[in-house]
Design a protein that fits this description.
Serine Threonine Protein Phosphatase 5, Tetratricopeptide repeat; globular; disordered N terminus
């Protein structure tokens, strides 16, 4: 019996051994395949960068894409995404280099050709604009009806002064793709500038007719109606969108703006409240901001507290809460929030930046500098850190170092308007009016039609002695809005021209100013500019009112619409 048992055991062992061997081989093969299926490093970094792009964290996205390129220099998509990240960071030079590399690797990359055209169109140099045309033409050679390329060609023609050709291209693009929203918006704005409201409205209605299910098309039509004063029709379009999608962020936002501007504040507040409770995180803070603007500061702080509690890992929500505490002079609460954040992560850049601002406000310049140096150690290209350091240097009486930091801020981010204004004012105070004017003249094109830009350029013109151009700037500003800055500039110019009585009349025409003109005022131009800046801040659109432009919608290329609008002005 024992012998039979041994025989069975031997038979089992002899048959099981090959089976076990096969299982072992299969497991090894599976493990090997699992290791081989791991994503290559460049693709993993590319995916990580795309995730940062989705949250508009362009700095971290750029780092990931650079890593992907280092792992695989021929990864075209990594180069292209790096270009988009650099455009998001407003680093035109870096974006240009990345797009150039994409086109070196693949000259037929249509998206890169279009982006390069878009980038070059931000320049004021004729040779850059002509290159933009060449890139757009490359796309049209492969796709003759490409509406984005036709739009780019139209903007280029406008920049080169060929308005009739531009209009012809827009008409051509609209005829071939009437449903293309960017073309429709651009053509509508062009016709509106030609006083053709009916024609402009027809273009947008045709876009809606061609895409009846497009909610975006209806929003643009509603925004256009709002723009030309047809508030009832605009409201109807927005509400049609909300019937289909009650949480549509753009429809809620545009309707809120319209209701607020027409005096229906309680209804506007309700729209903003719906945005705050909607699914789109980017629009949730607008409710708190609106409450601040209409004077409900206590309720605004409570709303920002709610959002910060709702999303404890949202750095932006925390940053807004701290700003709200500061605005309501709850400094202890602001410091408490920042301390808690830095206790968790002493390298928290946003917290360090805000704490440095609080230190600056308190006159603790050593503490502010310490925090800012820590930020720059971790993130050398943090433009805001350089900007705040310029404030530390200014407070400590180091004007040359202040300028160095402001110049570095603008190198990292040419769109940093506050830095441009601060540097401009430092030149004015130093008596370098022409340098200040040159700096203002190099601002991004889309900032040059804003009230803030016009006003501070006027201060530069006054300091440089170009009174003829100053007169034009003041008139342009006063047509847009009778702000204190423009009224003061008007008075100072008349003083310069020895027109004392008209100067007094110009200032006293504003009942809120209560200013007295005397001999000393002419000597105060530098100080007036600086003080005015300190009170009002340096926002490009400071003091502006009115409707939102059609280019303010995420689904329309804002750059193209803004450029066309500026050129037709």
């Amino acid at each position: 019996m024992a012998g039979r048992a041994n025989q069975r055991t031997n038979r089992y062992t002899s048959t099981a051994a090959p089976a076990l061997l096969m299982l072992a081989v299969a497991l090894v093969a599976f493990i090997g395949l699992g290791g081989c299926s791991r994503k290559p490093k460049d693709l993993a970094l590319l995916e990580s960068g795309n995730q940062f792009m989705a949250t508009k964290d362009y700095a971290r996205a750029a780092l990931q894409f650079r890593g992907a390129i280092q792992a695989n220099p021929k990864n075209i998509e990594a180069h292209y995404q790096l270009a988009l990240a650099q455009m998001g960071r407003a680093d035109k030079i870096a974006a240009y280099r990345a797009l150039t590399k994409v086109l070196d690797l693949n000259p037929k990359h249509m998206e890169a050709q279009l982006r390069m055209a878009e980038l070059l169109l931000t320049s004021s140099a004729p040779e850059d604009i002509k290159q933009a045309e060449e890139h757009a033409q490359s796309v049209l050679d492969a796709s003759p009806d490409n509406p984005n390329a036709l739009d780019a060609m139209a903007v280029a023609e406008l920049r080169l002064g060929n308005r009739e050709d531009a209009m012809e291209l827009l008409e051509q693009a609209s005829n071939k793709a009437p449903e293309h929203l960017q073309t429709a918006a651009m053509l509508a704005m062009a016709r509106l500038r030609q006083k053709d409201k009916t024609g402009a409205e027809q273009v947008l209605k045709r876009a809606v007719d061609k895409a009846p299910e497009s909610l975006h098309a209806r929003i643009i039509l509603g925004a256009f109606d709002f723009l030309i004063g047809k508030n009832q029709e605009g409201e109807q379009e927005f509400r049609k969108v909300l019937e289909k999608d009650p949480n549509h962020a753009l429809a809620l936002l545009d309707l809120a703006a319209m209701l607020n501007e027409t005096g229906r504040r309680s209804e506007a507040e309700e729209m903003y409240r719906r945005l705050a409770n909607g699914p789109t995180l980017a629009y949730q803070p607008l409710y708190g901001g609106y409450l601040f603007r209409i004077g409900k500061r206590k309720e605004a702080v409570a709303e920002f507290e709610r959002l910060a509690k709702l999303n404890p890992k949202d750095v932006n929500a925390r940053t807004r809460l701290v700003a709200a505490y500061v605005a309501t002079k709850r400094m202890a609460d602001a410091q408490s929030v920042l301390k808690a954040a830095l206790d968790k992560n002493r390298k928290d850049t946003a917290a360090l930046l805000q704490r440095s601002e609080l230190s600056l406000m308190a006159g603790a310049y050593v503490d502010a500098r310490k925090d800012l140096n820590q930020v720059l150690y971790n993130t050398p290209d943090a433009a805001k850190a350089h900007f705040l350091l310029s404030g530390v240097n200014r407070a400590e009486g180091n004007p040359l170092t202040q300028r160095q930091e402001l110049n570095e801020t603008l190198r990292l981010n040419p769109r940093f308007f506050s830095a441009r204004i601060a540097l401009t004012l430092s030149y004015i105070v130093a008596g370098e009016g022409k340098t200040a004017l040159d700096l203002m003249n190099h601002a991004p094109d889309d900032q040059k039609n804003t009230l803030g830009y016009i006003e501070y350029r006027n201060w530069s013109l006054l300091a440089s002695g170009d009174l003829k151009e100053l007169r034009k700037g003041i008139d342009e500003g006063l047509v847009k809005a009778r702000t204190r800055g423009f009224i003061m500039q008007d008075a100072l110019l008349k003083l310069q021209l020895h027109q004392v009585a008209p100067a007094q009349a110009a200032v006293l025409s504003d009942e809120h100013l209560g200013l007295t003109i005397n001999d000393a005022i002419a000597q105060r131009v530098r100080r007036e500019a600086a003080e005015h800046h300190a009170v009002r801040g340096a926002e490009p659109r400071a003091g502006e009112h009115g409707h939102r432009d059609l280019g303010d919608h995420a689904h329309v290329d804002r750059h193209a619409v803004a450029l066309l609008d500026a050129e037709l002005a």
